[in-house]
Amino acid sequence: MPIRTEPMTVNIGPQHPSTHGVFRLRVTFDGEEILEVEPIFGYLHRGTEKLAEERNYTQIVTLTDRLDYVSSMINNQAYCLAVEKLLGVEVPQRAKYLRTLTAELQRVASHLMGIGFFLQDLGTLGTPLMYAFRSRERILDLFEMLCGARITLSYSRPGGVFFDAPDDFWPALDQFLKDFETEYREIEQLILENEIVMIRTRGVSILPLDVAINSSVSGPVLRASGLAWDWRKMDPYDAYDRMEFDVPTATGGDNYDRFWVRIQEIHQSIRIVKQCIEQIEPGVTRADVPLVLRPPVGAEAYGRVEASKGELGFYLVSDGGISPYRMKIRSPSLLNLTVTEHLLVGWKLADMIVTLGSLDINLGEVDR
Amino acid sequence: MAVQQLSGEELTEKVGAAVSDAVEGPCDGVLWIKSPKIAEVASFLKSDEGLDFNFLNSISAVDYINHFEIVYHLTSLNKMHTAIVKTRLNGREELSLPSVYHLWRGADFQEREIWDLMGIRFDGHPNLKRIMLWEGFEGHPLRKDYL
């Protein structure tokens, strides 16, 4: 007698340890195989864009911390670049270098988390994650020296940075870079070309380049599909035009490549940090801008950066008042989720969790 | 080899020649399009060899009380240039314009978000439902008259 089977619809999340936040996937399975998938989000929607209309330009910096809360430094930078474009303010050189340096440290911290949680999703029971957190903690300590906060930093301000780095920051940074070399080699030895990681991730959930471009995918996910598109190179902001670095790309577009691109990017970020230390010169760290900013009536600007997850953009419209008339956030995590269906259909439940980890989304940024 | 932004004048000329009755003047540095023609123009911008806008950066909606503005930020990853395309919708009720979902899949979540928060419908979007807020929520909170 044949066994009667039927597809089953299951909710993964919103409270699930491997969805990286409050995120729900409604999945229809045929046994273990995924037939349909729909991402559902908005559980963390705080209305950041609406809140911004009620605050002045300087206050909004604190709202941007809470978007992608593992890379606040880059969010602050993106927002400040948009405001500076709106006002036409020139940022002092030292502030540009400090922003570039902190943004790259933040990228290292964010990618370490991305890698750690990706391996956690593969079932590594925490060892690589703790290795990653060990180095990330050191970076957060450095940020604490800079601005007193560890996560919600608000270090960049319109016109420059909040404060110059204290004297003991530089030796601490040197020490970190020295230690990180060994620490990172340990992580790489543990995971790169690890047979189990390779078997589980090679050739799984392939994202072809044309699909990636058509779906507005950006950041490491796009570069893993084979296109060396990085806004730090393509439209250099702050001090990136004076930095030498490569854009790592892979051609497979599978889970392993997305993971591999992040690992390589950490090397490039460290390269940029070292160049910043060499090139930075004494000077003022904030342009002479008032606390309450009033951009011209009708001015608008789109400021963007290459954040750790992809292209982060702020579209600001001014009506001459002290707060923006409209602030739109182009969130890389949200748009990278467009390809979930393409990546997951046809694969198994166990791969689904890994694929989601390889996209490295952050729900604070998806929901805003 | 930095990315260049194409001027509105240049784009207006090219689009004006290719798509009839689509351009709305006057041009103030960006390309202004009549809202019913947006999908047609987008299709031209994407398929034209010289323009080749294959990447949709973002779609934003701005509420100006009397009218709404929809702003498209586009990039060509091959030709290394960007452009801003705008369209205007008059009034406040029953607003709609053609969807660009079939050209750029990346428009999916952004169009849903604009419907959810601004209350502008996109004709031709296959799954236009609320995205951030829950079904049954009343109103569109990013509108200026919501609060």
Describe the fold and architecture.
The complex is a heterodimer of chains A (368) and B (147). Chain A is α+β, with helices and mostly antiparallel strands. Chain A has one domain (47-329): Cytochrome-c3 Hydrogenase, chain B, CATH 1.10.645. Helix content of chain A is 47%, strand content 13%. Chain A has helices at residues 48-52, 60-65, 72-87, 93-122, 127-147, 169-191, 195-201, 209-214, 220-224, 231-234, 255-279, 332-336, 340-344, 349-359, 363-367, and strands spanning 8-12, 24-30, 33-40, 156-157, 160-161, 297-306, 311-319, 326-330. A 3-stranded antiparallel beta sheet of chain A has the order 1-2-3. Chain A has a 3-stranded antiparallel beta sheet with strand order 6-7-8. Chain A starts with 7 loop residues before the first strand and ends with a helix. The mean pLDDT of chain A is 88. Chain B is globular, with a radius of gyration of 15 Å. Chain B has a single domain (4-106), classed as 2-Layer Sandwich (Beta Polymerase, domain 2), CATH 3.30.460. Chain B has 3 helices and 7 strands; from the N terminus they run βαβαββββαβ. Chain B starts with a strand and ends in a 24-residue tail after the last strand. The longest helix of chain B has 12 residues, at 107-118.
What is the straight-line distance between the termini of chain B?
45 Å
Low-confidence stretches of chain B: none
Q: Which range does the strand content of chain A fall in?
A: 5-15%
- In the CATH hierarchy, what is the architecture of chain A at level 2? Orthogonal Bundle
CATH class of chain A: Mainly Alpha
Structural class of chain B: alpha/beta
Distance between the termini of chain A: 53 Å
Find the count of extended strands of chain B (DSSP E, 2+ residues).
7
Main traits of this protein?
heterodimer; A: 368 residues; alpha+beta; Cytochrome-c3 Hydrogenase, chain B; three-stranded antiparallel beta sheet; 8 strands; globular; B: alpha/beta; Beta Polymerase, domain 2; five-stranded mixed beta sheet; 3 helices
